[in-house]
Amino acid sequence: MIVAAVDLGSNTTRLLVGRVEDGRVDELHRESRITRLGEGVDSRRRLLPLPIARVRNVLTDYRRTAESLGADRTLLVATSAVREAENGEAFLGEIEWSYGFATQLLSGDEEAELTLRGVGELAAGTLLVDIGGGSTEFALDGFRASLPVGSVRFTERHGEDAEASIRAARALLPELDGPTSAVGVAATITSLAALDLGLEEYDRSRVHDHVLTREEARAQLELLAALPLEERRRLPALEPERAPVIVAGAAILVAILDGYGLESIRVSERDLLDGAALAAAELPEPEEGAAPPGAYTCC
Question: pTM for the whole thing?
Fold first, then answer.
């Protein structure tokens, strides 16, 4: 079955179209665009009109791409920004009606679980870390947690004060029973890996399975924090629109590695989006029907 999965995140809106067979996703197309849906949600608890418009434009393109590649099912999963926004569920209703996507609003624990499904089986004692725009998810053996810690949220709260972001993240870390290793997913961590590798352009095959040490993560944070925004935008392998929030994201990673005494983290390109693709293959055949509750009423 060919499926499409959309991750509606606080900072990015991502698409994966792939063929699912025997519990494996064979990628046909993967795309990511920064839409900053979580802009202002931390303080106003609403999805704002401009970010919503950016997302709508991207979803129009994604629907066209999914259809052109023959996707039989499309599942859109929504995370922190939509969870916290008063008009979040109404916006999902509009997405279902306007684009024909099945949608799922994930709780923090469900987000961690679906991310783990996308990454695949991990050895006992391995901490899975997913640093997003609005939240950070953890999975460790049977433990799951989601923290209100993210690159967009902390940039809005602390600006580019890296030490303030580190202190704030450390204060929110849950007590864990001694993780012995870690795997990190999502764009903050993969971007830091690309910078650590010195790539001239982003290369998923080289980033995947790269081991980023705590010292290297701290060095990248210090470098990024020292650069003016316009110089960060010009760094090879760093998406220019990620430059405004990468300092806060890197600070969160450093806080996690320091807080749990982890010497390194292995980077994975498989993540929530891959888990969503597997879940999309389990959806029933879509049926045409009345507009879902909240359609056309979100804003």
Answer: 0.92
